[in-house]
Amino acid sequence: MNYGYSSFCPGWDESKKFELAKKLRILLEEFGIRHASGYNPGRSPYIEVDGLYDGVRIRRITHMSYCKRKDLVEKADRLYVDVMHLEQSMFKKR
User: Do residues 75 and 27 touch, judged by C-beta distance below 8 A?
Assistant: First the structure.
């Protein structure tokens, strides 16, 4: 399972994808997940930019508990809104 942001998301700005990836990596580290950028062997989540999908994705979140995954997605969405300089109302939860 993965979760991410791309041109399909409201307010997407291609020029800000690396800033978003950096902030998402820091977010994963706050969840106790190290080495969170690039391919990460094992079951640990990691950040991918323009990999299998375009945009920025948090990959391998399948093994996180439902509550932890929900918390991660909510915080990631807030980061997206912040980085893309959107009004919260412009970005609906998926």
Answer: yes
In angstroms, how far is the first alpha carbon of the chain from the final one? Answer: 14
pTM exceeding the 0.85 threshold for the entire prediction: yes
What's the burial of 51, exposed, middle or buried (CB within 10 Å: 0-12/13-18/19+)?
Answer: middle
Cα–Cα distances (Å) from 86 to 11, 24, 91, in that order, read: 7, 17, 7
∠ at Cα 70 (38, 26), nearest 5°? 35
Residues 46-86: tens digit of each pLDDT = 899 998 889 999 999 998 999 999 999 999 999 999 999 99
